[in-house]
Amino acid sequence: MNDDGFSAERLFNQGYSYTYDDVIFLPGFIDFPTDAVNLSTKLSRNIPLSIPCVASPMDTVTETSMAIGMAALGGIGIVHYNNTTSQQASIIRAAKSHQIPFSTDLIFASPSDSIHSADEFGNSPCIFITESGTEESKVLGVVSKSTWKGLSDKEARISDYMNSSPVTLPSSYNFEDVAGYIACKKLDFVPLVNDKDGQVVNLVTASDLERLNSLPKLGLPSLGTDGKFLVGAAVGTRESDKERLEHLVKAGINALVIDSSQGNSEYQINMIKYVKHTYPHLDVIGGNVVTKYQAENLIKQDVDGLRVGMGSGSICTTQEVCAVGRGQATAVYKVSSIAEQHGVPVIADGGISNSGHIVKALSLGASTVMMGSFLAGSNEAPGTYEYKNGLRVKKYRGMGSLEAMTKGSDARYLGDTAKLKIAQGVVGSVADKGSVLKFVPYTMQAVKQGFQDLGASSMQSAHHLLRSGTLRLEVRTGAAQVEGGVHGLVGYEKKYF
């Protein structure tokens, strides 16, 4: 008899609501190297991923750049719906038109315009000239910043001096193709254009390639059967969301998340039924849920995945405001124990602030983790950097914050018809983290080391150890949690890579 620690079944059936920091795993037996750990998993019944990372559908987390970056890493981004239908569909199309793991802000003008200041170039080395002056028409030419600086008449029309036959490459070219071409032709930059209509979808510079080469080597990207990046999208449960969904399907979404803070409702069940009937080949992820009862109701509707978490996000105040929710460790274990019986993958949504939390979420039965604050503040997150108290930060807000609700996210909290809006989230800021292309691979390496310490060489192995009772856990006292972190120092700097 193993009297070290408790099995998960015994630990989580004592009436306590535990979060990740409350519990600790006891080490297992190591008989394989770290690099032998395989983190491949499933987002939903039919969508495999190379890494268990999902970018949350929040308007300060996932738009084009994040969706591209996550797919390039082997994860997936879920594009938020706190915008118009056309804006959300445009983000999807833009993300799926890329093959290179970054997106550059493109600047457009018409031939009749004039460029009056170098500021109009922003951080771009060039401005693209199209008939309409927008991205939605074919490129007629390009003006490089160096060309403009050499002009004697800065008031001249762009048509007088633009390069009307710029060098371009198809957007279907991969990183190696583009890098090789730029190096061979000794170019400073090259636009990537859509094969179908000649629209510019990205701009690659020599400095971009140099930056990418300095980052950790990317693993297998998340690609659909069409060879394009996998991209997911979120919608609500209103009648208007059915029309929105039609546009998203046309834009090419690979997975749909029905977004609600409390998913066990007739509104969500009706939406799942509609999607399953109208788009039978689209994987539908339901939620959010934290109990077996909630999960069973959605599983009966044949959902392809479940999103778990209520009030556990760093900017979410649902538990505080509504007195409803559950500790995330308990929620993940309970829901995954029933979902596994039906072959439904679980997404642990919320409460992830370090690699240890990811290890705990996955080892407690989740197949992937959804991250908001963990990815917010990165280069790929929407928004611009600003400085607060000498620290470079980006805005990060909960979709239940009053600020986000004014954009339409109140439907997520079933409050879009309420006369009085009650906030279930806050607005804050997150420190600059750099690129997800750098810190996510390092995080995944740390997760592999955690799995090695547990004696689990894969996600499936970890789940088997959990269900068989081989994996042992204990609850940590407050003092044990302090001891398990950095302590006893006058000052320190925490760096993981």
Give structural notes.
- The chain has 497 residues and is α/β, with parallel strands linked by helices.
- The protein contains 16 helices and 21 strands.
- The protein has helices at 8-11, 64-73, 85-96, 145-149, 175-185, 206-213, 240-251, 266-278, 292-299, 318-322, 328-339, 355-363, 402-405, 436-454, 459-468, 478-484; strands at residues 23-25, 41-44, 47-49, 53-55, 76-79, 108-109, 126-130, 139-144, 169-170, 189-193, 200-205, 232-235, 255-258, 283-289, 305-308, 346-349, 368-371, 386-388, 391-397, 427-431, 473-475.
- An eight-stranded parallel beta barrel has the order 4-5-12-13-14-15-16-17, surrounded by seven helices. A three-stranded mixed β-sheet has the order 6-7-8.
- The radius of gyration is 24 Å and the shape is globular.
- The model has no long low-confidence stretch (mean pLDDT 88).
What's the SSE blueprint?
Elements: H1 8-11, E1 23-25, E2 41-44, E3 47-49, E4 53-55, H2 64-73, E5 76-79, H3 85-96, E6 108-109, E7 126-130, E8 139-144, H4 145-149, E9 169-170, H5 175-185, E10 189-193, E11 200-205, H6 206-213, E12 232-235, H7 240-251, E13 255-258, H8 266-278, E14 283-289, H9 292-299, E15 305-308, H10 318-322, H11 328-339, E16 346-349, H12 355-363, E17 368-371, E18 386-388, E19 391-397, H13 402-405, E20 427-431, H14 436-454, H15 459-468, E21 473-475, H16 478-484
Parallel strand pairs: 4-5, 4-17, 5-12, 6-7, 9-10, 12-13, 13-14, 14-15, 15-16, 16-17
Antiparallel strand pairs: 1-21, 2-3, 7-8, 10-11, 18-19, 19-20
Helix pairs in contact: 2-3, 2-14, 3-7, 9-11, 12-14
